[in-house]
Amino acid sequence: MANSDNSALRGSDSVHETFGDYDLFIGRPNSNFHTSSMPMSAQFGRNGADFLTGGAMADDLMGGRGTDFLTGGGGADHLDGGDGADFLTGGAMDDALRGGDGRDVLDEGDGHGDLEGGMSDDFLRGGRGADAFAVDPTSGHDIIYDFKPGGPMFDHLALRDIKPEDLRFDDTTLGVKISWNNDQGSVLLVGVQKSELAQSDFMFADERYLLQPTSANADRLTAISFAKDEGGDLNAPAAAGNTAAETYNFDDFHVQKGNESADTMQATADRDAFFGLGGDDKLFGGANDDHLAGDAGADTLDGGDGMDDLRGGAGNDQLYGGAMADNLMGEDGNDQLFAGDGHDMLDGGAGNDTLNGGDGADAYIVNPTSGKDVVTGGFDAGPGAFDHIAFEGGIMPNQVQVADTAGGVLVTWGTDASLLLQGLTVSQMSQDDFMFSDVEGGGYVNNPLIQTAGTDFLFV
After folding, report:
1. CA–CA distances in Å: residue 32 to residues 27, 81, 219
2. Are strands 318-320 and 96-98 parallel, antiparallel or unpaired?
3. CB atoms within 10 A of CB 348
4. How many Å apart are CA 100 and CA 349, to the nearest integer?
5. Phi and psi for 132 in degrees, rounded to 5?
6. Which residues are CB-neighbours of 454 under 8 A, at least 6 positions away?
7. What pairs with residue 365 in β-bridges?
8. H-helix or E-strand spanning residue 200
């Protein structure tokens, strides 16, 4: 199929088409209403007040400018409100919610969610399951309504470009206020007091720190640093050409759709959303936040810089997250995931996968059908909330076994699923390396060699 450039979408046109399991909707530059009837959807609201609802599986909903209402529904969804005051609801399973600019309301729902309000003052609710609430120096003054404090690791603050010495702690009538940089930014944990906070409630996304307990009347903390080079960033081999079958350009987005043969799609200066469909595709994102879906075939996805959402689909795929916080999902097949720098989520999906989180704090997500996966690098074990295994799908602490092997630490649950942490020993691991998303306060207790350090209360 010849390339088609639909640049006229810079005007008042809209797009609604289905292909494979996808529903693609690109709205007009005013208010839009769309509910997907397909298992997966990619929806772009553009300007105005948009109401977008996803399907039963993984959806990518982009609100654009204006006040938007995004609902992911079932599946592991990626919701981005964009500019304006937005309302984001994730639904079931693991969702990544980013509010963008404006005063946003984020409600993740069930699952191990990653919530980031973005700039301005936001309202966040993680829902049932363990969640990461990401903040940085530009986050404004956020309010978290259902933060579950205390060890072992469960809900946690993921702090980017914020050091332990920047933090101040103050009890208020509504809850504990944690501020940084002389109150230029803060989070209010509603219903939580300082005395309930534990070491594993704080993840410093760039370097591993272990906050040290202090007296109950203190307002700041000291920390021990465990800075480590975990392997840095990797990029996919370059590929020439651009063979996408269909192209849409609008606002700050560049959307390309492939066909059933092998496609190559190159990064642009805009936010790229690429759909490979069939064939062995090579998809390259750029410096902005991109969405890359390989779909069927043995695909290679490279997010580049920015906070990217990468989905391999069926087939044996290679995913490279690049710099910053990325969401990597291998899905079906024996996949290779290289997250790179930043606070990343890695989910190999079904099949026997190879995982490398690279530098920064990462969540390795597993469930009863994950297969036999291997972590070849990027897992920094020990006390101080950082890299961790996120057990989902009803896996209980008493179902997990951890043992030393010649290849490293073998973590098993059931008979057909395991995670091998190459180069590590059980004695190097601690309680906060294990997160049970379905068990609030449920720690791992089945091996006495695992350290209990890292889950102590902070203000005693």
Report:
1. 6, 14, 47
2. unpaired
3. 30
4. 28
5. -110, 125
6. 151, 199, 200, 210, 382, 383, 384, 385, 430, 431, 432
7. 390
8. none
Q: What share of the chain is helix, strand, coil (3-state, %, to 5)?
A: 5, 40, 55
pLDDT at 232 over 90: no
Amino acid at 292: L
**Per residue in 361-414, pLDDT tens?**
999 999 999 999 999 999 999 999 999 999 999 999 999 999 999 999 999 998
Find how far residue 441's CA is from the centre of its chain: 22
If you search the block for the tokens 């390339």, which residue do you land on?
Answer: 3
Q: How big is the chain, counted in residues? A: 460
Residue of 208, 209, 207, 231 lying closest to 337 (CA atoms): 231
Pairing assessment for the beta strands 362-366 and 282-284 based on DSSP bridges = unpaired
pLDDT score of 455: 93
Judge contact between 77 and 58, C-beta under 8 A.
Answer: yes
Spatial distance between the Cα atoms of 326 and 292, rounded to a whole number of angstroms: 11
C-alpha span between 335 and 279 (Å, rounded): 16
Mean pLDDT value across residues 51-55 = 96
Structure-token pair, residue 260:
């059933």
Q: Both tokens of residue 147?
A: 């933060």
| Residue reference for tokens 């500019």 | 83
Any residues with CB less than 8 A from the CB of 164 and at least 6 apart, and which?
204, 209, 211, 221, 222, 223
Amino acid at 206: D
**Look-up: residue for tokens 């791992």?**
444
Tens of pLDDT, residue by residue over 418-448, are: 999 999 999 999 999 999 988 876 677 779 9
DSSP string, 383-439: SSS-SEEEE-TT--GGGEEEEEETTEEEEEESSS-EEEEET--GGG-BGGGEEETTS
Q: At CB < 8 A and 24+ separation, what contacts does 32-41 make?
A: 36/73, 39/75, 40/75
